[in-house]
Design brief:
The complex is a heterodimer. By secondary structure, chain A is of the alpha+beta class. The chains are: A alpha+beta, B alpha/beta. Chains A and B meet through strand 4, strand 5 and helix 4 of A and strand 10 and helix 6 of B.
Chain lengths: 152, 277
């Protein structure tokens, strides 16, 4: 079941069969959260990568002395988190389920080992993650532009 | 002479009574005027004249099937729109129209339809949404994506809630920034596009909002597989005469008031990337 969900995930859809097989070997199966559950918290070790299959997740941060700030919502079909790929492998933000959420969890250490052992897979994975980061960066830039605000 | 080209009718505003003014957000209001929209099609605009102040091109934002009233949603950004936004029931205003092109609703029939509105850009799309709902069976899946700066700046909030409750519309709303009591989505409206459940090659998309938002929406829609020939946007320029005479609204060789405001994205894609002074 989780294999199907993994293969059909937007992030994995165009991977070749060898890369998919490697990714499946890193799968920890399906996980779920109820609305309001914390999925990950800042500074915790980033041991998993989550391929969201349904629901919405709020990325948040809580600056000192202030209430939590909503940064971005990600949805089923998105990937939650990339801190597991970059030392020191700790989450940079908090994530909370904004609705009931399901995901396929991948073992981050195994993914990194597999990427080191098989550069072809490593390149495919890195491209996927780069695409994801570029997409979020572009969206963040648009957010910062204050598109709908008054014109200068 | 063709009455549609009669210069007196084209240039001389008719007087309309303000029937109602509904506050949408802190700086935006919907003004209801007596008299119909002279058969306007969704996407078109009228020239609305605040007596003694000036005239401004304002899109139709109401039900295209109402023959007794006409609605315009106005954001107060200058002297004219400020004067229009400050109107009260019983006041009078000058009005001429309709002008420009409309959304390709006929062309979209039989396929999937994606409507993307950002900020005040939802206003020119509202008549199209109302027309689609009145003829819902003519379209396959219909998705409406709405973006705003903050939750309090979302237009037509009650109507959005009604649309979201329908089973035959996929309505997603997102804001760029929100306090922590907001339960909806946070992020730019373009990020909702990859999640659309449509058949891309059979999809027509209508996009209205700031030009940067329309450009990135078009990019995401094309990445999803929607052919660029099926993308339509509404371009806003400084419309003055509204009949392609004065050239104030020109975008390259395009007269936005006459060949627009709704244009195929292919027609303006290159022009939208040009840096303007």
């Amino acid at each position: 079941m989780s294999e199907n969900k993994l293969r059909n995930h937007r992030c994995a859809r165009d991977l070749d069969s060898s890369s998919l097989t490697i990714m499946e070997s890193c799968s920890l199966g399906e996980v779920s959260w109820k609305k309001g559950d914390w999925i990950l918290t800042t500074d915790d070790l980033a041991t998993r990568c989550y391929l969201l299959t349904s629901g919405d997740v709020q990325i948040e941060t809580t600056p000192p002395g202030r209430k939590e700030t909503l940064l971005q919502t990600i949805h089923g079909g998105d990937v939650l988190g990339w801190s597991w790929l970059i030392p020191p492998y700790r989450w940079a933000f908090d994530a909370r389920a904004a609705s009931d959420v399901t995901a396929v969890a991948l073992d981050a250490a195994k993914l990194r080992e597999a990427a080191d052992a098989d550069p072809r897979f490593g390149y495919a994975l890195t491209k996927k993650m780069f695409f994801l980061v570029a997409d979020r960066l572009q969206a963040t830039r648009l957010q910062l532009m204050d598109l709908y605000g008054p014109r200068a | 002479m063709d009455p549609a080209r009669d210069p007196i009718r084209l240039f001389a505003p008719e007087t309309r009574e303000v029937l109602a003014v509904r506050k949408e957000t802190a700086d935006t209001a919907t003004v209801t005027l007596a008299g119909g929209g002279r058969g306007f099609v969704p996407g078109q605009f009228a020239m609305v004249y605040a007596f003694g102040v000036g005239e401004s091109a304002i899109s139709f934002s109401g039900d295209p099937y109402r023959a007794d009233i006409v609605e315009h949603t106005v954001r107060r950004v200058g002297a004219v729109t400020g004067a229009i936004g400050a109107l009260r029931p019983g006041d009078h205003i000058g009005w001429r129209g309709p002008f420009g092109t409309g959304w390709p609703l006929q062309r979209a029939r039989g396929g999937d339809l994606v409507i993307v509105g950002g900020g005040i850009g939802l206003a020119p799309l509202r008549p199209a949404i109302l027309a689609v709902m009145a003829d819902r069976g003519a379209y396959r899946r219909v998705a409406i994506l709405v973006g705003a700066r903050r939750p309090g700046e979302l237009l037509y909030q009650e109507q959005l809630a009604e649309w979201r409750a329908r089973f035959d519309l996929d309505v997603e709303v997102t804001v760029d920034a929100a306090a922590n009591n907001w339960r909806g989505s946070v992020g730019v409206v373009t990020r909702l596009i990859p999640h659309l459940d449509v058949e891309p090659t059979r999809t027509t998309a209508m996009v209205c909002g700031p030009e940067v938002m329309m450009r990135f929406s078009a990019m995401e829609l094309q990445r999803l597989g929607v052919p660029s020939r099926n993308l339509f946007v509404s371009v806003e320029r400084n419309m003055k005469c509204a009949i392609a005479l004065c050239g104030h609204c020109q975008l390259g060789s395009l007269f936005a008031c006459h060949e627009g405001a709704v244009v195929p994205y292919d027609r303006v894609a290159g022009l939208m990337e040009v840096r303007e002074a």
